[in-house]
């Protein structure tokens, strides 16, 4: 009897949630999602694309590449602390310089969102907004970020030494493609940090839709609660 009651209650809750979503017009669903995506992307870029946006945020701060991280203690022991610190700072500054390039591409991705995309995001789980951005922008953003990151990291001697070592290691399959150069590593970490911060904005919309700046975002995400 208790099992039957539980199944009945689950069915009622599911029906109510479905009805709430169905009560939102296709136009409202699309408009609300586009606004949420635009707001979330703009907020993430605004937080990261400034001085210390990466460097002072432990959630996204870019550490030394794994091959150097593993010997960081020895580097510092043998008087290479400054070189290590310079590289860490330059990598994070490179990410901060690259991220503003993402804003227009993210906004354009939000504008291109179809009705099918919108419905998929609304019913696709807690990271569906972030997943949509990652799927539709990562290739273009990699192309935009890479030259900016390379310009910044090329100034650091340790980065050049790492590239020479990692390039050889990659040819033997000892280092993955994302770590084969400092600029490739930093570009990937920049994207990871950007999508992470978009994810944080998405969590905010989902857990507190009334805190959104737009009424249409409140309406759409409020229906999911």
Keywords summarizing the entry:
11 helices; mainly alpha; single chain; 225 residues; 0% strand
Radius of gyration from the CA trace?
Answer: 22 Å
Strand content: under 5%
Order of helices and strands: HHHHHHHHHHH
Number of helices: 11
For the secondary structure, the number of strands is 0
Poorly predicted runs of 5 or more residues: 1-21
Helical fraction: over 70%
Shape: elongated
* Average predicted local confidence, pLDDT: 78
Distance between the termini: 28 Å
Content-based structural category: mainly alpha
Largest sheet: none
Descriptive report:
The chain has 225 residues and is mostly helical. Helix content is 74%, strand content 0%. It has helices spanning 2-22, 26-48, 66-69, 72-77, 81-98, 102-112, 115-123, 128-153, 157-171, 182-207, 215-222. The protein is elongated and about 60 Å long. Residues 1-21 have low confidence and may be disordered.
Sequence-ordered SSE layout with sheet pairings:
Elements: H1 2-22, H2 26-48, H3 66-69, H4 72-77, H5 81-98, H6 102-112, H7 115-123, H8 128-153, H9 157-171, H10 182-207, H11 215-222
Helix pairs in contact: 2-6, 2-7, 2-10, 2-11, 5-8, 5-10, 6-8, 8-10
Brief synopsis:
This protein has eleven helices and no strands.
């Amino acid at each position: 009897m208790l099992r039957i009651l539980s199944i009945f209650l689950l069915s009622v809750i599911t029906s109510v949630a479905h009805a709430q979503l169905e009560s939102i017009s296709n136009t409202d669903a699309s408009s609300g999602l586009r606004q949420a995506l635009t707001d979330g992307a703009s907020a993430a870029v605004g937080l990261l694309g400034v001085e210390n946006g990466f460097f002072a945020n432990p959630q996204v701060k870019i550490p030394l590449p794994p091959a150097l991280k593993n010997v960081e203690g020895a580097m510092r022991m043998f008087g290479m602390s400054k070189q290590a610190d310079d590289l860490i700072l330059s990598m994070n500054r490179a990410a901060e310089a690259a991220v503003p390039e993402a804003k227009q591409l993210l906004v354009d991705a939000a504008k291109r969102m179809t009705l099918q995309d919108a419905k998929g995001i609304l019913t696709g789980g807690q990271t569906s907004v972030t997943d949509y951005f990652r799927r539709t922008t990562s290739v273009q953003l990699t192309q935009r970020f890479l030259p900016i990151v390379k310009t910044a990291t090329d100034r650091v001697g340790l980065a050049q030494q790492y590239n020479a070592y990692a390039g050889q290691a990659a040819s033997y399959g000892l280092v993955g493609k994302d770590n084969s150069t400092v600029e490739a590593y930093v570009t990937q970490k920049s994207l990871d940090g950007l999508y992470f911060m978009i994810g944080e904005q998405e969590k905010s919309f989902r857990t507190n839709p009334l805190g959104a700046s737009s009424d249409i975002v409140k309406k759409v995400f409020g229906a999911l609660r």
